[in-house]
Each structure stands twice: as C-alpha cells, then as structure tokens.
Amino acid sequence: MNSKPSASDARIDWQDDGVACLVIEGEWLKHSRIERSERILTQLRDTPCSRLVVQTEGLTDWDSRLPSFLLHVIRECGKRDIPCDFQQIPAGAHDLLQLALAVPERAGARRSGKSPAFFHGFSRYVFGLVNDGRHLVVFIGELVLALATLLCGRARFRGVDLAIFIQDAGPGGFVIVSIISLLVGLILAFVGALQLAMFGAQIYIADLVALGTVREMGPLMTAIIMSGRTGAAYAAQLGTMTVNSEIDALRTMGISPMEFLVLPRTLALVLMMPLLTLYACLMGIVGGGLVSNLAFNITLIQYYNQIIKAVDLYDV
C-alpha cells in the first residue's frame, strides 16, 4: 500500500483531451515551503487547456494557504475562460472558496505594489502642509473673533470653568516645573563650573546660570512642559468631546465651541504662562545657587549680588 506523500507539492498532469489535472499533495500550511506553486500559475498562463480539475487525494493537512492558492488559480483560469472543477477539495476549503467568489473583487480595491512617483508624493506632502496651514489660519481667526467678543462683554463661557483651567495650568504645574527648572539650574552650574574653575572664576557661575535661565532655559522649558502636560490634556479633552458629539450638541444649542471651550483654556494659559516662566527662572537660579554654595563655597550673599549685577529688567 502506497503511503501519502509528505512533501508539499503541486503539479499539473496533462491529459490527451486537453484537461489539466492540478494535483495537490502534502501539507499546505503557511509556514511550509510549497514546491512549484508559482510555476503552476505560469503554466496556466502559457499552456492552453479546455478544463481544470483539482485533485487533493494526497493532501495531508492545510490551512488558509490552500484556499488562497486555489483562489489565485481560479481567477487565472477565469481570465482565460477555463472552467474549473474543484469539487474534490476538502469541504472547508470549498466553502471558503465559495464565500470568496460570491462577491467579485471591486475594481481598484487592490493596492498597487508600485510606489507612487516622486512628484506625486511630494505634491501630496505640499498640499497637506497647505491644508494644515489653512486650518491653522482659520483657527487663529476664530480665536481672535472670540477674543473680540470677550472684549465686547458678549463671550459666553462659565467663570467656574476659567477658574478650573487656571488652577490646572498654574498651580497644578508647579511640581513638574519646579523639578525640571531646578535640575536645569543644577546642570548649567555644573557644566559652567568645570570650565570656570580652570581660571579661578567660579564666581561667574551666578552670571552663567542667571542669564542662561532667564534668557533661554526658563521660558523654553516652561513652554515644553506646558505644551506636553496642559496642551496634551486639552487635546485629549476636546478630542473626547468630539467623539461623543458634545461639540456638535453645543453648536445645535447655538453656543460657539470656540467661545465656550477654547477661549477659557486660552485665557488660562495666557495668564499663567508668564507667572510660571518667572517661577521657573527662580527655581533654576536656586538650583545654581545650591551648586555654587555646596561645591564651590560661594556664599548665598555673593551669589545674590552677582546675579543682581548680571541680570536686569531687559533680560527678563
């Protein structure tokens, strides 16, 4: 008694009457390497035949690899008006093929393997930038109109919402602003001290920390923290309201989302950002003072006097 073949294979046996018998043997699994599977499609394209019969007596195991291959074969035969007989395949694969062939493939649904041309991709990128810029200009214009409405005393938003947003944007960010600014001041002092100590000019650590913090690092780190913390929270809140159709409900009731949602958040940021920036500069200077006093024996009075000489109102 002959045993079933263990090798995964597919071949076409040609009969005298022009009938092609597609013989499928072995295991047809996704991880298996199927011999001559691509050659079958090539033979069907190049060799004329009157009918195709699928035989699976030697098939031992299969998964989605088998119906996927048979679907390609059937579609290739359909292009050449070759009738297919796949009644002998396993019942599960037969049902999957019937389901796949029940609805024809929509024209243009298959993604092309060719990458888009350079100018096509570049033009899409440019038009995307232009579209984003247009949305930004529209948003700024609507915000300016909302501010004008506020100045006229006609803006509609709740004062309690403004108080909550001020609390969240201001005192709610003190901890993270304190930690980041203090560390920035410590780092500036250490980095500058390594170079200044070579010339015996450790006293100028105060100038370096004060000017670097007040002019650059304080406002920059505050802006990064606020955009990452408060800005992300605002985006999440407004995005959730959009998904839940709450913004559409406001428009239905005749309430401007720009006035009711965006304006109080913007006012809270405008009011709190300068205060947080000054606080961040102060914490950065404190961090530099700790390094100067503990590592280089510069008294706090000397450190303070040097800062007064280095920083004026123009720097702030």
* Structural class label: alpha/beta
| Apparent shape | elongated
For the record, give the distance between the C-alpha atoms at the N and C termini, rounded to a whole number: 96 Å
Task: Give the SSE string.
Answer: EEHEHEHHHHHHHH
**What is the number of beta strands?**
4
Uncertain residue ranges: 1-6
Overall pLDDT, averaged?
83
Helix percent band: 55-70%
> Main sheet?
4 strands, mixed
> What topology, given as strand order, has the largest sheet?
1-2-3-4
- Alpha plus pi helix count: 10
Number of domains: 2
Residues in β-strands, percent: 5-15%
Task: Please characterize this protein's 3D structure.
The structure is a single chain. By secondary structure, the chain is α/β, with parallel strands linked by helices. It has 2 domains: 9-102, Transcription Regulator spoIIAA (2-Layer Sandwich); 159-310, no CATH class. Helices cover 64% and strands 9% of the residues. It is built from 10 helices and 4 strands. It has helices spanning 37-46, 65-79, 91-102, 118-151, 159-169, 174-196, 205-243, 246-252, 257-296, 300-310, and strands at 9-14, 19-28, 51-62, 84-85. It has a 4-stranded mixed sheet, covered by helices on one side. Strand 3, helix 2 and strand 4 (84-85) form a beta-alpha-beta unit. Helix 1 (37-46) runs parallel beside helix 2 (65-79) and helix 7 (205-243) crosses helix 10. The radius of gyration is 37 Å and the shape is elongated.
